[in-house]
Amino acid sequence: MIFDRLRKAPPDPHVTALRPDHARAMAALHAEAFARPWSAADLEAMVVDPQIVGDGLFLGRDRQPSGFALSRTVLDEAEILTVVIARRHQGKGFGKILLASHLGRVMARGITDIFLEVEEGNKPAIALYQAFDFIHTGRRESYYVKPDGRRVAAHMMRRSSS
User: Fold this and answer.
1) What is the pLDDT of residues 2-33, one digit of tens each?
2) Which has the closest alpha carbon to 92: 66, 63, 120, 53?
3) Which of 41, 60, 52 is nearest to 18 (CA)?
4) In the chain, helix, strand, coil percent, each to 5?
5) Among residues 46, 106, 43, 118, which one has the least CA distance to residue 75?
6) Which InterPro entries match (predicted)?
7) What is the pLDDT of residue 86?
8) What was the pLDDT predicted at 10?
9) Burial profile 18-45: b = 16 or more Cβ within 10 angstroms, e = fewer
């Protein structure tokens, strides 16, 4: 019986900086989440870019991320480029763990304003960002392409510490 509980125990999540050797796993996660996924080469280039903060969500002893967040910083502003949690781990609170840690690292660079775009109908993501004090600032029509080719608007959001 104790072995059953151990097997069903939730994985121990931790967030750490991404490395270039995570790029393939990141590309697979991104492809699972977006109709126009980024390549491993693109993601590797982002991870080594000094203006980009990249954090991975790791579960238990996994060596590859089950989620990740990337933000580009310029002076005192940042843009969240992407936040991805593996589909099989969504709805378990891992997005909050990842985003809390990621925002902490971004803000440690002296960032006062963070911007992002999220697909307008993505209610779980919008709720997550609102929980971290992001507010709606506008829309970008026909911004995202769905797998079936339809285009949907982006919900633009901003978080300010000033």
Assistant:
1) 444 445 555 789 999 999 999 999 999 999 99
2) 66
3) 52
4) 35, 35, 30
5) 106
6) Acyl_CoA_acyltransferase (IPR016181), GNAT_dom (IPR000182), YpeA/RimI_acetyltransf (IPR050680)
7) 96
8) 54
9) beeebbebbbebbeeebeebbebeebbe
Q: What is the CATH number of the domain that holds 79?
A: 3.40.630.30
Q: How far apart are CA 44 and CA 19, in angstroms?
A: 8
Instruction: Give the Cβ contact number of residue 143 at 10 Å.
Output: 16
- 58 and 66 Cβ atoms separated by less than 8 Å: yes
- Reported as a single tens digit per residue, the pLDDT across 60-85 is 989 999 999 999 999 999 999 999 99
Which tokens in the block code for residue 35? 């109709």
Active-site residue numbers? Answer: 117, 129
The H-or-E segment that residue 113 falls in is strand 113-119
Q: Is the pLDDT of residue 95 over 70?
A: yes
Question: In one letter, which amino acid is 27?
Answer: A
Report pLDDT digits (tens) over 103-134. Answer: 999 999 999 999 999 999 999 999 999 999 99
**Interacting residues of 55 by C-beta distance below 8 A, sequence separation 6+:** 15, 16, 17, 18, 68, 69, 98, 101, 102, 105
**What would the two tokens of residue 125 be?**
């993501």
Look up the domain containing 93 and give its range.
2-160
Amino acid at 156: M
